[in-house]
Amino acid sequence: MAFVKDMLRMWAHSWKRFISIAMITLLGVAVLTGIYAGCRDAFRSTDRFFDAQGLHDVQVLSTAGLSNGDIAALRKVNGVAKVQAERSQEVTFDLDGRKSATMQEIGTNGIDQPYLQEGRMPKKAGEIAVTRKFIRDSGKRIGSRLTVTPESASSDTSDTNDTNGADGTNETNGTDEAPSFPTKLTIVGVVLDPQNLSNPDGYSAMTSFRSTATTDYTFFAPSDGVTGTLYTSATLLVKGAAAESTFDESYENTVKQVTDRIDGTVKTDRQKARRQELLDAGNKKIADARAEADKKFADAQSQIDANRQQFNQQVDQIVSMQAGAAAAGAAANGANAGAAAAAGATTPQLDETTRETMRETIIAASLELTQAKQQLDQAQSQLNEQKASTEQTLKTKENELKTSIPQVRWYVQDRQSLGGFSALKSDLDSIQSLGNAFPIVFLLVAVMMSLTAMARMVEEDRSLIGTYVGLGYGRLAVASRYLLFALLACLIGGGLGLIAGFLGIPAFLLVVLQGMYVMPGLRLEYDWLYGSLGIALFVVGVLAATIYACVQEMRQTPASLLRPKAPRAGSRILLERIRPVWNRMGFLSKVTARNIFRFKSRLIMTVGGVAGCTALIVCGLAINDTVADLGIKQYRDIYQYDLMVVSDDSDASAMRTKVASDGRVTSSLDVRIESGDLTVAGSGDGDSGKAGSSGSESIQLVAVPEKHLSDLGEMVTLQPVSSGILGTSGVGKTGSLKLDDDGVIVAQSAASALGVKAGSKVRLTNGDGVQATAKVSAVNRNLIGSDVYVSETYYAKLFDSKDAKNTKNSKSSEDSEALTWNAMLAKLSGSDTSQTDYAESLEEDSSVMKAVSCAHMADSFKFDLMGAVVALIVALAGGLALVVLFTLANTNVSERVREMATLKVLGFFDREVHHYVNREMMILTVMGVILGLPLGRLVGGMLTMALNMPSLYFEVEVKPLSYVIAAVATMAFALLVQLFVNPVLDRIDPISSLKSVE
């Protein structure tokens, strides 16, 4: 019992060490669990939302639309739980200029159901539900009416169907039709599209750019009023996928099994069957056209024959009359009247030659009969020519049918192809990677500080330990006094850290996340396993340090432990050997130098602890500086143009005329901009079209006219880059990079995420969905957005190849020579404000789809999530620095109590004692800061290299002010600690401290 009381008394006496270990553990556990818990809560709530709304696991698109036969084939695939055939149509409407939207049918099989936020779901024809983004942009509300106009190429399906309508190749049978939606609409509800959780009022709304292949809004309509039997896509739910987390590898493996089955069996068969259906439909239509033409020709021939028969009857009548009259005249000149009468009663019999001669004579003698005969002959001739021409045309179409119908291509995509899903996943993964890295530093610092504190604690009780061992107490029992002390401190600190880690930090992160994404049903959850392991990790580290300290002392005999520890033998330090410096130092300066460098363990612990904390602060500030400069570097340094204007293909000429007539442009470059995908070759079956594979990135494909390839360098800074160390990249000379016809130039932001280098092979998908394998000629410095530059000639080579011609919407070789330049890069005159105003005014023009001012983008670019995480990390690092300095300072004082007492006996005043002790701590702190500044740059570079976020590349930037802030903050913490240490020095009693420990 006395042993326990003494142990508790010892614990109470060492409350400062207890608080230090508890605080370090608290901060470490909070960092370890906090960022993880915030990301995990977001992951789980999003996964629950996706399951509730039935977000598809697999989506199948076809260049020729999907038929009922395709849907039936997909239902038979092993592992498919549900299949939903979907119809959609692209429409346009006037909203401060021409805007586009996708009319999306609300599925009836529970897949991709929009989440109702306000109002009610549409039920009748003409009713729609819109997104909050549309409500915000349009100013409309529930009950407002809207009239839309279907685009000429309203969907992938209609594009295919309208391609060869004259040939009859636009239908699979006589009943398949492209989807059509009502055009007079009424808004009855506001919904959240499960395929895009971006908050319209957050970061994505300020920095996103939609290119020509993406509509501005999505309208959801019920099946009532929707016509058409050809489907735009098919969405599938996979058996067992809902039981897995959509962000885990197990989910991806489950879905991949089904996509592989579709790619391996159904896809090939249905592509061939679909094309055969198109061929059969074309042949049927040609046969129907031939039958219809034959019927018309037959009717025309019958009419001509009837008219000719009537004409012949008329001529024959005249011939008979003339022959009868001639016979009657000859009889009148005969001998008796009876014979004459008999002769007049009958028509004389004429042979065929005589009759034909008379017919020709009669026709020739009559102008009316001559004209009638000519008309009949001319009609017959025209009919014969039409028959011959029609037959030739039909034969030509029969011969051209196979070549005119493209090969049908299926594109099997998973959730990764959804821009909103992949952006959310990448954001959270990147933030979580920071949460996985920083706790390592906290753990190392915790172990170092625990070793320092517990070693000093054990050393202080050296004689007591010897007494207990001498009295027969086991070494384990004696060591348990310190092990339980450290364990209790870790458990209390860890428990408080769990509260902060699973409640405080996640609540802070989720507030920022909800500013970027809409996540219904978000709630904080506790993970028992991860929380327990988080505490266990620090418990093991601290206990290991405590065990090491105990072993170092208890290996000695009780007799040795009962005697005071022999002081360290005197020795020279390196500075003493530098005589010019050493001889000019004062006495106290020499004492300080000896105290600093003779005690190596204290030097290492202090400098290492301060350096680690300083490095964390620099690392956080480095990430902040890097993010803060992204917009300026991209939109003022890399993009040399001031304005990018994009229009629809049909309005491209009007757009250029409008911009030119305004007189604001000093120079410009016409380009073609399309949205597409870049997939690393080898990440999947290149022919499968699986753009959603792990090696895929959404890109902005920029085609440059062949005659103006050299002008691209005037609009965009072209600098080749190569990966470097410490988060840097080797940047080549400006202007040393040229766009040519041998490959594409890929933006650094896309290349770094996919590991693409110069010479790599990648799979490009253009705005029409055509895929082709391209060579990467160079990687260009680029921080925001994923631009891929391609020359006009290489574009035609890629997307007008044999494979491309067999894919939807591919242009013929004649068309490929004249791409539609639907965008313009321009330099403007005037201030930044006037350029921003001009871009806003252009967006009101009906011919302009999007106008982007680089000046506005540079000023408005923000990354709130990363800024919030950086602020959190810097705050925690500052707290850790304060605790570390407090622990080291108190340990330093406790080790030197007799020394301080001696100084007081010698006549040193309190302020002189403060200065004597604090000067050593300040020097050690400065040394730690000097070491921590470059260390922070190193750690910051490594972390930013790991942040592979979509369309963003973090080019590490640490401003001089950040180094100053980190250094000043650490020194300020050191000065703050002095306020706590000085009273401890004042309370040292010289007499009692100098009493013999024996």
Mean residue pLDDT: 80
Extract low-pLDDT stretches.
153-175, 203-214, 339-345, 682-694, 801-817
Distance between the termini: 26 Å
Radius of gyration: 44 Å
| Structural class estimated from helices and strands | alpha+beta
* Structure annotation, total helices: 32
Tell me about the largest β-sheet: 6 strands, mixed, barrel
Helix content: 55-70%
Based on CA inertia axes, which overall geometry fits?
Answer: elongated
Strand order of the largest sheet: 14-15-21-18-20-19
Q: Count the E strands.
A: 23
Bin the strand percentage.
5-15%
Describe this structure in words.
The protein contains 32 helices and 23 strands. By secondary structure, it is α+β, with helices and mostly antiparallel strands. The strands form 5 sheets. It has a 6-stranded mixed β-barrel with strand order 14-15-21-18-20-19. It has a 4-stranded antiparallel β-sheet with strand order 2-11-1-12, sandwiched between helices. Strand 16 (721-723) and strand 17 form a beta hairpin. Helix 19 packs antiparallel against helix 27.
